[in-house]
Design a protein that fits this description.
By secondary structure, this protein is of the alpha+beta class. It has two domains: 13-123, no CATH class; 131-217. It has eleven helices and two strands. It has helices at residues 24-33, 36-43, 46-49, 60-67, 72-79, 89-104, 138-147, 150-163, 170-179, 182-189, 198-217; strands at 5-21, 119-134. Helix 1 runs antiparallel to helix 6, helix 2 (36-43) crosses helix 6 (89-104) and helix 4 (60-67) packs antiparallel against helix 5 (72-79). The longest helix is centred in the last third of the chain and has 20 residues, at 198-217. Pfam families: DUF5752. InterPro entries: DUF5752 (IPR044036).
């Protein structure tokens, strides 16, 4: 028997860590030692905080290296850390540390930034809030998603897969397991949430479900 879908949202409290960077060496030290929540905040959670154009994929680390240090080559490498390609926070951290270690090891002299320009490592303390239980049918799911908050889409499409090292987003997993909607699940899974802001991501998901519903209505 199919199970209902439990819609949740994410509410986060952002706090300062004990780490800040005024140079690449202290930046590297911070990347190695901060919590996974800090890496998640500066790489993945940027989508919720910054509704950027699709051409701007910079995470917080890449942006600071470019704007405060003027190191465009390293910034490009850090920006290349693909949130969709890294299935865990640990993997994202390892890539970041590798890029900075290699760059620092090149032997160039790197200056310290002026006071007030330091990078402050922050971390996210998340609270997951259950909002609604949706009956296991596609039309109920669609109408629930129409009313859902952007935090709901961030949690189910981005946070849950990364935090829990899932192979897919919550929507797609439920569509396959409980509704047998393999094609729709695959279509949603192929959406790259980092290519859109959250309003656009919500619209894309709704478009996929609405298209599938129309197929049923026409039969």
């Amino acid at each position: 028997m199919a199970d209902p879908f439990k819609i949740c949202s994410e509410v986060g409290l952002v706090v300062h860590t004990n780490y800040k960077a005024e140079s690449l060496k202290s930046f590297l030290n911070g990347l190695k030692k901060v919590s996974g929540s800090s890496i998640f905040y500066h790489v993945h959670h940027a989508l919720l905080r910054r509704h950027f154009a699709t051409s701007d994929h910079m995470n917080d680390f890449a942006r600071w290296v470019l704007e405060a240090l003027g190191q465009s080559i390293l910034s490009e490498r850090l920006a290349s850390v693909d949130p969709m390609g890294t299935r865990s926070v640990r993997e994202a951290r390892n890539q970041l540390v590798s890029f900075v270690s290699e760059y620092v090891g090149g032997g160039e002299l790197f200056f310290r930034v002026a006071e007030g320009k330091e990078f402050h490592f922050l971390e996210l303390h998340s609270l997951i809030v259950p909002l609604k239980t949706v009956e296991p049918d596609l039309e109920s799911f669609y109408h629930a998603l129409k009313k859902a908050t952007l935090g709901t889409f961030f949690f189910h499409m981005i946070e849950a897969p990364i935090r829990l090292a899932k192979h897919s987003n919550d929507f797609s997993e439920w569509l396959i397991t409980d509704l047998g909607e393999d094609e729709l699940a695959a279509e949603i899974a192929h959406l790259n949430p980092y290519m859109y802001n959250l309003w656009e991501l919500k619209a894309k998901v709704l478009q996929c479900v609405r298209k599938r519903l129309k197929e049923d209505w026409q039969q």
